[in-house]
Amino acid sequence: MSIKKISAIAIAGLLAASVVATVAQDAFVAPATPEEAVEARQALMREDGGILRSAAGLSGAEAVAAMQTIKTNYSHIPALFPEGSIVGDSEALPAIWENWDAFVAIAKSGEDAAAAAAAAAEAGDADGYAAALKTLGGTCGACHQQFRG
Ligand code: HEC
């Protein structure tokens, strides 16, 4: 095989690897139906709840990874609430779409708090981590109070 051919194959391999890496980083696909949206957001909420319950006991790389997962999950919240998607056992309230900006703002503040918690954990700042966790936890209740029936 010529050097040219070998390097072409190597480059193709590298490109394929980088596509896989990009997908693996955030494989999020917006739901196609209201049923899918409800299922996906309920699963996301349960995952966040599970992580948050153990988060106070984490530190270092484990805490960073946990907070990055929550940050990514929070960034998906708006896309998981397509307008009027109240089907099946959904507890979502119509208020979500009547106050969309407020709904998105709570999700964004949670995303920021998770990022702050990850940064604090990375820096070994236990107090900063605890404070950011508290802010993050506050966004769960703030949103449920207004937007979950
Ligand atoms: C921006 C708004 C918002 C935020 C932030 C939010 N939630 Fe929710 N959550 C909802 C809504 C709306 C529902 C109802 C979804 C449905 O049933 O369609 C819900 C549902 C849930 C459920 C029920 C899932 C099920 O199986 O039915 C749990 C558990 C939950 N949230 C936990 C959390 C936790 C823990 C946090 C914080 C880490 C959180 N949520 C943050 C809006 C939010």
Automatic annotation (TrEMBL):
Keywords: Electron transport, Heme, Iron, Metal-binding, Signal, Transport
Transmembrane segments: none
Source organism, top-level taxon: Bacteria
InterPro entries: Cyt_c/b562, Cyt_c_II, Cyt_c_prime, Cyt_c_prime_subgr
Signal peptide positions on this chain: 1-23
Stored SUPFAM superfamilies: Cytochromes
Name the record gives this protein: Cytochrome c
Organism: Devosia oryziradicis
